[in-house]
Amino acid sequence: MKLEPAVLENPFARLEPLAEAHPEALRAACAADPDIWTALYPISWAGAEFEPSWLRLSRQVAAGQAIAFAVIAQGRCVGLSSFLAPDAANASVEIGGTYYRPDARGGPINPGAKRLLMGHAFDTGARRVVFRVDALNLRSRAAVLKLGAVQEGVMRQDRVTWTGRVRDTVVFSVLAGEWPAVRDRLDARLAAFANPAAP
């Protein structure tokens, strides 16, 4: 597995490696739902927490611990997503750190972005793509299952969030051998978004 930063694009989303051109647009996207950061995220990108989170992610990218993307839809930044903890020796990577502003949820942007990320990972030799979701985040858990990932289990009291809450983490994965079928179902789902009137 040899993951590299690259612009990834399909009709539903454009993923641009996070750069100095993105912080203000990303700040505005993260400010669109200030309450979600307290309720469901291990760190916050809202308000005064934005700058420390930007710097933390930038350091992780510089250290090779993440490849982060601004998610662009219809010409504006609507959120972010990342490859986390790429493990080339074991051909495994996590897709996480995902956030979308409220008006970008529930449509084709997330499945479109995940199609790009999973495709890029498997095309570059990944054997395993992992998703880790807060057990309380029912929307994200349902979205990951809808992508075609398999729930592996729950890591109890796995992480202390920035508010001090101790979260359980639900682990999902897609394996390379499962990817063709997952990809085909995802492509069919995206085709339905592109052609809503089709039978």
Structure description:
Helices cover 35% and strands 32% of the residues. With 199 residues, it is of the alpha+beta class. The chain has one domain: 3-Layer(aba) Sandwich (Aminopeptidase). It has an eight-stranded mixed sheet, sandwiched between helices. The radius of gyration is 16 Å and the shape is globular. The N and C termini lie far apart (39 Å).
Label this structure with key terms.
single chain, 199 residues, alpha+beta, Aminopeptidase
Series of secondary-structure elements, N-terminal to C-terminal: EEHHHEEEHEHEEH
Say what the CATH topology is: Aminopeptidase
Contiguous runs where pLDDT drops below 50 for at least 5 residues: none
Biggest sheet details: 8 strands, mixed
Widest sheet: strand order?
A: 1-2-3-4-5-6-8-7
Sheet/helix structural class = alpha+beta
Q: What would CATH call the homologous superfamily?
A: Gcn5-related N-acetyltransferase (GNAT)
How large is the share of residues in beta strands?
Answer: 25-35%
Write the layout of secondary structure elements.
Elements: E1 8-9, E2 14-17, H1 23-31, H2 34-40, H3 50-62, E3 66-73, E4 76-87, E5 92-100, H4 109-123, E6 128-134, H5 138-147, E7 150-160, E8 166-175, H6 179-194
Parallel strand pairs: 5-6
Antiparallel strand pairs: 1-2, 2-3, 3-4, 4-5, 6-8, 7-8
Short structural description:
With 199 residues, the chain is α+β, with helices and mostly antiparallel strands.
